[in-house]
Write a structure and sequence with these properties.
single chain; alpha/beta; Rossmann fold; five-stranded parallel sheet; 22% strand; globular
């Protein structure tokens, strides 16, 4: 069975883009729209990797990173953020995220980063 990736973003177009990209490389993709949903789905499905948006309604990505790491200290989380959010990205990495990818997302860069943490 392939590796599972949880894609967390409040923008459906971003989730769809990443889902199609990851599925084309035979990863199983789960989606969450909010930080709260991300934490619940992480608990239920124990994905191998999470891509996490920073700015979301209800629970932001930084809080969600902290909550997921409370559940699983070995969780692999990659932040996805727009340029100009470097202070938030820094906070997310300090909270335990492995690295970050800058939006707009470039498929090759996303895959290279994801594979580095899955292999």
């Amino acid at each position: 069975m392939g590796k599972k990736i949880l894609v967390v973003d409040d923008a459906s177009v971003v989730r769809m883009t990443l889902k199609q990209l990851f599925e084309s490389y035979h990863y199983t993709v789960l989606e969450a729209e909010t930080g709260e949903e991300a934490v619940q789905k992480y608990q239920t499905f124990k994905p191998d990797l999470v891509t996490m948006d920073i700015t979301m309604p209800d629970m932001d990505g930084i809080t969600a990173v902290k909550e997921i790491l409370k559940l699983d200290a070995k969780a692999k989380i990659i932040m996805c953020s727009a340029l100009g959010q470097s202070n938030k990205v820094k906070a997310a990495v300090e909270a335990g995220a492995k690295t970050f990818i800058v939006k707009p997302l470039h498929p090759e860069r996303v895959l290279t980063t994801v594979k580095k943490y899955l292999d």
